[in-house]
């Protein structure tokens, strides 16, 4: 469906029906000057996959970074409610492992967080409140899953197929730009275990929790020992008759990160349990944050600075890595108490902290040593109607099975994206992800992934990376609008160069050690798709796009057509100040609109 065939716009900012009539592009014959002022923005239609943190940020930032009336946006959300992972994950104990005061948009502080590490429901509430305050819901299409996006190089658009997940009804749409804001961990999957669905009792997945299932006084199996199991296990231990935790691999359970500001301020002078990561903010704490924004800002900055400063722990055999191994090991053993030698031996990894995602969590190790919890170290052979049979032939009879086994890591998008050569990303990425700075893919123009493989996923806070990648994408959109660009795609040689840097950098990071991790696409030995530096290093790199790393296709015959008829915007608007912007009393930066 081409722009000329579709006159009804997206829900957007101006409601103009036929808003995509560009000035004549004179593809044939002699070049002609466009009758417009210098850099007049072209109309731009943007579609985003997902209405979680990335989609909400995109709407907010487009309103502030693009010329009003020059763009339209739709946020396609597959769920009946927006919020992304915090809407989908509602299992017992779900919480964020980043301190709450740095798990909001960096420009939108929330002084009244209930706890130092916020629950999933409170985070979902934050995003719902953000959408209400900033009018984000007008851009959303709920129950709308993009299943296919096909690039039309002649029109410079993506033809989109959208499906209702409930009715399977499909409809068509199109956009000049496609933003993938669905995240890496968005498609949950059942573990590949023989006979899993032969079990006669309820089977639950952590990412698709059934709240109608009663666990009180029930015998329960929990499969997995990752970040979700760490939260679910202590929650179920308190109510179940007994719990068996099936542990495939060891994991590091760390003390709290970013807690220096907490212990030096709010807990100063208190007798604090060194393993206790949680803190309930008092009304006095919230009042101080609310009434003293500078104090609150300093509190947030110290949390972030501490987390950024810890990146050295990911350098193999560094002093900080060695210290962290010693500190975490001692803390884990302290939490488990005397004895439990088999558990301590199994759960303490031989690989360095950080090779797999570190799982901080209150109560997990303490729960494993309770009388009603049994850690199971034997591998799972199969599931039988009565429970789980392990490799040694033992059948562990249970009444409930919880799969805390994570997601199908979306190194490739969960929907089909096809370029102008008729090749899909799946066909193009035969040797693994091919994504520049975690955002742009060669041969797939005008397509932006928000914090994809190659960005910061293992160290630091995530929202600043989302925000800055959104801003990067919008700067690309703005360049397209103002310079008559129909399509821009990152060069393969630029990506090859950054991947060569990745490989050399990671040759001595802990991520290349012998551990299975989604950082390495689920493999023990594979290219490491993590940014080679701390979060702040990533932000510095993508703050401003390197335009020289892109190839451009121009909408008009001459790449300088955007210069127009000799006017600037201020001329058209008879703006005296705009027509003399460079006349000033001191030497400061200036620019012409």
TrEMBL record:
Q: Which Pfam families match?
A: FMO-like (PF00743)
Q: Which InterPro entries match?
A: FAD-bind_Monooxygenase_sf, FAD/NAD-bd_sf, Flavin_mOase-like
Cite the GO molecular-function annotations of the record: flavin adenine dinucleotide binding; N,N-dimethylaniline monooxygenase activity; NADP binding
Domain of life according to the entry: Eukaryota
Write the record's keywords in alphabetical order, separated by commas: FAD, Flavoprotein, Oxidoreductase
Q: Which family does it belong to?
A: Belongs to the FAD-binding monooxygenase family.
What is this protein's name?
FAD/NAD(P)-binding domain-containing protein
């Amino acid at each position: 469906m081409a722009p000329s065939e579709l006159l009804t716009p997206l829900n957007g900012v101006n409601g103009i029906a036929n808003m995509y009539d560009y000035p004549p592009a004179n593809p044939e014959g002699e070049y002609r000057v466009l009758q417009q002022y210098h850099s007049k923005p072209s109309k731009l239609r943007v579609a985003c996959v997902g209405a979680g943190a990335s989609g909400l940020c995109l709407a907010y930032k487009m309103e502030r970074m693009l010329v009003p009336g020059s763009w339209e946006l739709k946020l396609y959300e597959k769920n009946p409610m927006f919020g992304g992972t915090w809407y989908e994950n509602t299992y017992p104990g779900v919480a964020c492992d980043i301190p709450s005061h740095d798990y909001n948009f960096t420009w939108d502080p929330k002084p009244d967080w209930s706890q130092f590490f916020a629950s999933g429901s409170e985070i979902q509430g934050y995003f719902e409140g953000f959408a209400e305050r900033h009018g984000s819901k007008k851009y959303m299409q709920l129950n709308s899953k993009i299943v296919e996006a096909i690039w039309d190089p002649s029109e410079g658009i993506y033809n989109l197929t959208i499906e209702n997940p409930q009715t399977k009804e499909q409809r068509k749409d199109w956009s000049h730009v496609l933003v993938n804001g669905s995240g890496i961990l968005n498609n949950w999957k059942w573990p590949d275990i023989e006979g899993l669905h032969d079990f006669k009792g309820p089977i639950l997945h952590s990412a698709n929790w059934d709240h109608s299932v009663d666990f009180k006084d029930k015998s329960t199996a929990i499969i997995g020992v990752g970040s979700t199991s760490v939260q679910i296990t202590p929650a179920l231990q308190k109510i179940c008759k007994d719990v068996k935790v099936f542990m495939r691999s060891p994991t590091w359970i760390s003390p709290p990160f970013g807690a220096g500001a907490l212990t030096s301020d709010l807990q100063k002078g208190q007798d604090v349990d060194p393993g206790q990561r949680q803190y309930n903010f008092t009304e006095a704490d919230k009042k101080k944050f609310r009434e003293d924004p500078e104090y609150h800002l300093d509190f947030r900055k110290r949390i972030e600075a501490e987390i950024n400063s810890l990146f050295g722990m990911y350098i193999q055999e560094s002093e900080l890595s060695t210290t962290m191994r010693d500190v975490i090991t001692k803390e884990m053993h302290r939490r488990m108490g005397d004895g439990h030698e088999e558990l301590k031996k199994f759960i303490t990894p031989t690989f360095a902290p950080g090779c797999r995602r570190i799982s901080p969590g209150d109560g997990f190790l303490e729960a494993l040593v309770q009388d009603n919890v049994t850690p199971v170290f034997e591998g799972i052979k199969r599931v039988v109607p009565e429970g789980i049979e392990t490799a040694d032939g033992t059948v562990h009879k249970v009444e409930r099975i919880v799969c805390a086994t994570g997601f199908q890591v979306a190194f490739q998008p969960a929907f089909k994206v096809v370029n102008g050569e008729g090749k899909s990303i799946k066909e193009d990425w035969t040797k693994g992800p091919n994504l520049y700075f975690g955002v742009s893919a060669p041969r797939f123009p005008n397509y932006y992934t928000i914090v994809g493989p190659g960005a910061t996923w293992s160290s630091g806070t995530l929202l600043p990376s989302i925000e800055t990648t959104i801003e990067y994408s919008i700067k690309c959109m703005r360049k397209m609008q103002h310079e008559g660009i129909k399509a821009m795609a990152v060069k393969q040689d630029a990506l090859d160069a950054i991947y060569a840097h990745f490989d050399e950098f990671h040759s001595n990071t802990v991520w290349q050690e012998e551990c299975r991790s989604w950082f390495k696409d689920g493999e023990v030995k594979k290219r490491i798709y993590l940014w080679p530096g701390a979060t702040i290093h990533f932000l510095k790199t993508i703050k401003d796009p390197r335009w020289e790393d892109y190839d451009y296709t121009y909408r008009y015959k001459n790449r300088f057509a955007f210069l127009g008829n000799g006017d600037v915007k201020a001329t058209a608007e008879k703006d005296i100040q705009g027509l003399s912007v460079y006349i000033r009393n001191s030497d400061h930066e200036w620019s012409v609109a």
